[in-house]
Amino acid sequence: MADETTMQEGELPWVKARAHAPRSAPTFVIAWSLEEPSRVGEIASVTRESVMGRGGPPSDDTTTTRLVFRRARPPGIDVRSSAGEPLGGSRISRVQLRVRPDGDELVVENVGRCTMQVNGVETNDARVRPGDTITLRNALVIAVTRRTLTLPQLRAYDAPAHPFGRADKLGIVGESPAAWALRDDLAFVAKSKLHVLVLGESGTGKELAARAIHAMSERASKALVARNAATFPEGLVDAELFGSAKGYPNAGSPERPGLVGEADGSTLFLDEIGELPERLQAHLLRVLDAGGEYQRLGESRTMRSDLRLVAATNRSAADLKHDFAARLAARVSLPPLATRTEDVPLLVGHIVRKLAEGTPALRDRFFEPTTSEPRLDPDLVERLLRHTFTHHLRELERLLFLAVSTSRGAFVELTREVEAELRTQGATTSASTDEPDEERVRAALGDAGGNVTRAARALGLKNRFALYRLMKRFGIEDDEGDPSASGA
Q1: From the centroid of its chain, how far is CA 359?
Q2: In Å, how far from its chain's centre is CA 146?
Q3: CATH architecture, domain defined by 177-333
Q4: DSSP assignment of 57-81, as one string?
Q5: 327-348: string of b/e by CB count within 10 Å (b at 16+)?
Q6: For residue 66, how many C-alpha atoms fall within 13 Å in the half-sphere facing its CB?
Q7: Do residues 43 and 180 touch, judged by C-beta distance below 8 A?
Q8: What pLDDT, in 10s, does the model give residues 199-247?
């Protein structure tokens, strides 16, 4: 007979956690604001029929629910000012939009004086979904997404709060759930002693992640040693990794510590580790074991290095030599931009600021002198929100450099050169009849064993990023937990 103190199944902590998953709702995110640019990144969850507009409700209106934009961060992370303040400015009406949820969509009606566009098409009525954009002409750009009403408590990230929407001390920019989950994952891994494999598609910021892991680890007092494994000279990989004794291979040759020796007591970052052939990955096995043993070329004695390896690849972990991959026990998967589009406007501001660093002419031309906010063409921000990024942060940097270099006025513009580079999504204001529904998406992922690339191909989608957007819309998680495992 079971002990009287035995918990009922529903009371078990892990069962309760699954049963009480955070509620999610369609959400508006401020992506651009002419009169309140500091509010970019603020969100308003749409849980019931509501109105959106300037200021608070009239004193005699006690029944209408008004959308309130707020700065959302995990519990314990300080958020200062503008939390839950009414929208300001003079360009939008007090009642500008009427919004009501309808399944996975929002029905939006424009009743104010400001012209509305949905995905670049002027309209007064539309059904919008995550991934769509709403532009109130010359006033606001809104990104539509779906996210939880609250962000979860962080497990490991405990850095002091950084200004909302700006880069943190690690260089990571973003206020989306994916950005905060990434910070927490990196901090959790950093505090362990395990060797790490960073997985992510090209341009997602793998070196930034590796440097963040090192900076938050107990090895941070020593310099990170970094090398791209794809650049090792043919036939000299062992010499580069393990070094060589004095007089080897020729008399008079100096002693070389190698990367392994240089990283003793610190972190060794090897980017593009998947480009290292399996037979050469095997050479690292011994030094990655507890003793850290290795031998320099031209020397018989065994040396030791207390290093921590952080390796990165845009391939699947399964593409690595199995016993080498097994030693990289801690894994971090970097999210593609398709899963964190609401961070794109914040990244745009950050990148433009970096482009203007040390160049007073650019700051004088493209920045407000009183607020230090960049002057951005709202059409540029809107189009970037709908762009299909294949090289993620690196591609965004390239597009913004092109915009800065080809703009002729006082704003960073959507120039013809930039427009020619963009491939936009969501050209209509309602669901395409050819777009797969949730049932088809789940079935395709099941048939493909969770492989996003194969599932996208089976559904007839343009690429895997289109499937990532559908997965986000339907609340489907990537079972592999590895965006790169789809064959990037």
Answers
A1: 28
A2: 15
A3: 3-Layer(aba) Sandwich (3.40)
A4: --TT--S--B---B----TTS---S
A5: bbebbbbbbbbbbbbbbbbbbb
A6: 20
A7: no
A8: 999 999 999 999 999 999 999 999 999 999 999 988 899 999 999 887 6
Q: Give the percent of the chain with pLDDT over 70.
A: 88
Backbone phi and psi for residue 271, each to the nearest 5 degrees, phi listed first: -80, 160
**What count of other Cβ atoms lies within 10 Å of the Cβ of residue 145?**
22
Token digits for 93? 């009406």
- Whole-structure pTM value: 0.83
SS3 222: coil
| Nearest to 60, CA basis, from 94, 88, 86 | 94
Peptide bond between residue 249 and the one before it cis (omega within 30 degrees of 0)? yes
Q: Which residue has the tokens 């956690």?
A: 17
| DSSP symbols for 333-398 | EPPPGGG-GGGHHHHHHHHHHHHHTT-HHHHHHHB-TTT--B-B-HHHHHHHHTB--SSHHHHHHH
pLDDT digits (tens, 9 = 90+) for 327-360: 999 999 999 999 999 999 999 999 999 999 989 9
Rounded to 5 degrees, φ, ψ at 236 are -120, 20
DSSP-assigned letters across all residues of 268-328: EEEETGGGS-HHHHGGGHHHHSTT-EE--BT--S-EE---EEEEEESS-GGGS-HHHHHH-
Q: What is the CATH number of domain 26-148?
A: 2.60.200.20
Contacts of 321 (CB under 8 A, 6+ apart): 278, 281, 282
Instruction: Supply the DSSP string of 3-19, one letter for each residue.
Output: -TTPPPGGGSHHHHHHH
